[in-house]
Amino acid sequence: MNKIPPVDLTRQYKLIREEVGTAVLDILYSGRYIGGTAVTDFEQQFAAYLGVDRAVSCNSGTDALYLALRALKIGAGDEVITTPFTFIATAEAIAAVGAKPVFVDIDPQTFNLDINHLTAAITKQTKAIIPVHLFGQPANMTELMQVAKANHLFVIEDCAQATGAEWAGAKVGTIGDIGCFSFYPTKNLAACGDGGIATTNNPEIAAQMRIVADHGRSDRYYHQVNGINSRLDSIQAAILQVKLAYLDRWNQQRNQLAQQYQKLLENLPGIKLPQVLPAAKSVWNQYTIRVNCQEKSPKLRDKIRQQLGELGITTMVYYPLPLHLQPVYQQLGYQQGNFPIAEQAANEVLSLPMFPELSFAEQQQVVYALKDCLVEVKSYASLS
Ligand SMILES: Cc1ncc(COP(=O)(O)O)c(C=O)c1O
Questions:
Q1: Which of 244, 268, 287 is the last residue in one of the domains?
Q2: Is residue 3 part of a domain?
Q3: Residue 384 scores a pLDDT above 60
């Protein structure tokens, strides 16, 4: 049996090897390894792709979030509302500027922030909301923006997993005040290393983000604020320019794969398939099912994952422990049971292999193996 990885970056590279090679060599020959037109051209192309005025590139998605918060002057004494069911970077950036992450539970269907809980979490200290478009599916931005506007809060979209996704026809990263993207190698638009970008229609916010990312300077050796060094390397920018031209095609391929999974796994007892809201266009950074029979067989998800691994299929668990229960946030005072939907998701989620070049035969192999595993853990009969 063939081994199937959760993601195989070499397949994509082989398809665009020559273009990427030329782009990298051009930078190497140019001698301009920091900044230059590779970076400024990419920023413009990315902004045009989204339909937003400005894009400020930086070292990572984490830095993009940090720059966004700094540009909005959010810091000590402020609160920022976000989801506990995300990668740590979302909350980490809030803590890094000295503000307090405030979590609200998620929607069980989409794994995204449950808008119904937002208003109760808002205090006088609340300055912003950071929705995360998890696994490629946008959060409900219509309702979220209504709550934000009514309470005069900034909205920073964490688009790390959702480059190209749309909510009600608008690309994510163009709806809130700032959109933050990651070019980590497993993202939909990925560098061959680290990279990130922050997008906005507000020129002052863009200027502030640039200043903070560039050692807090307005001019060479004149520093206005305490900044950081956060740059997108020229080589990465050149590679990203090549890849941006393919992004829509790759996202379509992911969508096709998701539809196929949906058909192949339909009506399989013991699992629940991902659901996409009518206004959302997901870009399927992950295809995440729920093994939703914990009460009958605790840790069934982990058993299935292990057995799939023995059959050569590597699956992932994003995320096994919600952020409010992470040791690092103990001082925030949250406890088990505070966000039951996120806690349940952490026990049930299983991300199946998903990348544009995954073949139909491989998908079938994943599905057959999953069916076998469900039978083998002897839960199948009791579930059906
Ligand atoms: C939801 C989310 N936010 C932020 C980040 C941080 O991005 P980066 O790894 O580029 O710092 C990631 C990526 O890992 C992510 O998945």
A1: 244
A2: no
A3: no
Q: With 60 as the cut, is the pLDDT of residue 25 above it?
A: yes
Query: Domain range spanning residue 326?
Result: 248-383
Residue 198: its H or E element: strand 196-200
- The residue type found at 279 is A
- Give the count of domains, the chain: 2
Q: Provide DSSP, 128-188.
A: EEE-B-GGGPPP-HHHHHHHHHHTT-EEEEE-TT-TT-EETTEETTSSSSEEEEE--TTSS
What ligand 1 atom has the least distance to the C-alpha of 133? 1
Q: 187 C-alpha vs ligand 1 centroid, how far in Å?
A: 9
Measured between alpha carbons, how far is 36 from 33 in angstroms, rounded to an integer? Answer: 8
Q: What is the pLDDT of residue 307?
A: 94
4 domain residue, yes or no: no
Ligand 1 pocket, CB under 6 A? 60-62, 86-87, 89-90, 132, 158, 160-161, 182, 184, 194, 196
Q: What percent of the chain has pLDDT over 70?
A: 96
Q: What is the pLDDT of residues 245-261, one digit of tens each?
A: 999 999 999 999 999 99
**Ligand 1 pocket, mutate which of 157, 159, 184 (most atoms under 8 A from CB):** 184
How many angstroms does the Cα of residue 160 sit away from the middle of ligand 1? 5
Give pLDDT, residue 293.
64
Segment 76-110, tens digit of pLDDT: 999 999 999 999 999 999 999 999 999 999 999 99
Looking at the structure, do residues 155 and 18 belong to the same domain, yes or no? yes
Ligand 1 atom closest to Cα of residue 89: 4
Out of 198, 228, 244, a domain closes at 244
Cα-only R_g, the chain: 21
